[in-house]
Amino acid sequence: MKFLPVVLIWVLSMGIVVPSMYFYHPVNEVFISSVGMMMVLMLLVGWVGLRFNPKKPIGYFLLALVSVISGFMALQGFDAVYAVNFAPAGGRWTDVTEVAIVSVFLFIFALINHLFWPKRKIDDQSDQREQAQ
User: What would the DSSP string read from start to end of the chain?
Assistant: First the structure.
């Protein structure tokens, strides 16, 4: 039961991803490949987001940075999927718009995922030196 909010977040996020990819991409092969790629990127930012300390502002900055990098990965993935499936020219937004939309979506997804994930103990040592055993 403690993972129910996370499952709900994933279901709602896929409720955004699947229709947006369906109406954005012209052929079924590109649509299916893009949904799969977005699921992998959601896993990536969700997993990486759990490694950052939410008690410090740098954690949110790093999460945003990973989201932007994942947005660039999505852009390259869309290009590869189009090239592999011989999609017709046109029908794409500008690169900056695609990266921005995907990055913002992934950041919000990872942030919400992070906030609702069952709490864990974060080992935050202010002294970075090794401690004697």
Answer: -TTHHHHHHHHHHHHHHHHHHHHHSSSHHHHHHHHHHHHHHHHHHHHHHTTS-TTSHHHHHHHHHHHHHHHHHHHHHHHHHHHHHTPPS-----HHHHHHHHHHHHHHHHHHHHHHSPP------S--SPPP-
